[in-house]
Amino acid sequence: MSGYRRCLSIRHFNTSSTLLNAVAATRTSTAPSLSTFIRSGRRVLSEDDRRRTTSFNRRTNAVTERVQQVRDERRSLIERHRGAIEGSEQKDLQSIIEMIEFNSYTTNAQLENVLYMLNKNPSALNTLNDRQLSILIQAGGDAAQNVSFHYRKTYVEKLWQKAAERKADIGILSYNARIQANIDNRVKQNVVEILQELSAADINADEHTFCLLAKLYAYEGQTAGILNIIEILKEQNLPATQPLFESLVYSFAYNNEDERVKTICQSLSSNPAINVPLLYIAAATAKARVTKDIDEVLKILVDIPKSANFDRKEHASKILGIIVVLLENGVKGVVPKLQHYLYFDHARGSIPYSHFAEKAAFKLFKYGNEAGALELFPVLDYHSKIKLREFFVEQLKQSVFSSPEKAVELADIFREGQIFTKPLARIVQYAYFENKRIFPFYQKFIESSEFKEFEGRSHLYYPLIVNLCSQISALNPGTSERQQLFTQLFDIVTKCQLSELISRKIADVLESEGL
Q1: Of 16, 96, 367, 385, which sits most exposed with the smallest number of CB within 10 A?
Q2: pLDDT value at position 462?
Q3: For residue range 313-347, what is the model confidence (pLDDT) as tens digits?
Q4: Separation of alpha carbons 425 and 406, rounded Å
Q5: CA gyration radius, the chain
Q6: pLDDT higher than threshold 70 for residue 37
Q7: Is 299 within the bounds of a domain?
Q8: For residues 393 and 433, what is the distance between their CA atoms, to the nearest angstrom?
Q9: Domain that holds residue 197
Q10: Number of domains in the chain
Q11: Which of 301, 362, 280, 278 is nearest to 327 (CA)?
Q12: At a CB cut-off of 8 Å and minimum separation 6, what does 116 contact?
């Protein structure tokens, strides 16, 4: 509870800090009053209770960070055994819930299966407790990483509607899960309406609820709303947790109030229950989303004090999140500038396996941000690179069905990104295998820098020679265009040792010209 003395009590925010006192004295906007929907019931805690609460929060925050850290490791393990895991039968909601808990990951098929089961047997919802229902709701959030936002949103809405109709055991865990899923799915939510709904359902908001509501305010830059929540927490003697402080500094950074960000981070730096680097990372994330300027992000990160013991491995996923936000906004040169803050496996020269980073690279490329995907590619782990290379090869194969110009553009992107050294040569080969007309792609190939390495291989000129001969034969004798084609043909022939077949082809053309 020592955190209250430093940051929660708005009117007693570290009296030596004029900026923190100014937060309470001069609010830039007025948040709607939330006290109407919050039950009064101030609990007076003893000093022992306060110590236990502080100790508990410290352990909880450490565990939360550790859970976040091992998720990618779990997913990596699950990917290796996915066949056996998904081979188990999922005939009822209980088994699906267990699978979701084990995987921390859901697919489109699983979400469809849940809705199908509920349509077939709606009473199954009444067999679930609040925790189990919350797991089903969370399945429609970031757990379904490869499912579209639209379908995830539809899933959560339908599931909630069915649970309400069946009067299922909807408690605070389910409400929190719905708020979090809607945040994950970019659904706009109103804090006052959420509290009204909780009040109507006779359900008390808990610490996690207030942290989620603070996050909603933070994404809108409504600092006054977060301060209102802080006051309510103090009145209710509810402990303030790490996410609440992150939302506060995020909101200040969102509004470009950098000095207030520094003041709050410094005032909380001596609190052992607070992970100070995460506060700076939250502010940097806000800067990335609002300013789309890598230098503004770096200004925040370089202020992380050495005493805070910034752990690259512990905060790797958060830094990757900042990188992806900047890349999605078209910022270039992001990875080299933020590479210092990434955790690297120096033996392999890459970051550890990250499902988030792998998915982000795929998403960037699919949505037309090829430069962003290729900037992220070099730091990915070996297995992610293999998957992406296979995907890039498939994209090259598909390019032969488009125009040669688009194929060349894609090849240039891959060559500059050092994914393939000779992508145009690959495209010519793929066009041949697909029985497509290769010359439009071949012509681009011989005009490119790739062909310089092959100039000594005379057989590679044969398609061009045959094409020139065909063009000459199709033109009327004596035209200037035909003369230009002859000149080009003779220049190429002087470089080549011609086969008998090609020599005969040229002889036929010359004979038709009367030479």
Answers
A1: 16
A2: 59
A3: 889 999 999 999 999 999 999 999 999 999 887 77
A4: 15
A5: 31
A6: no
A7: no
A8: 14
A9: 2-267
A10: 1
A11: 362
A12: none
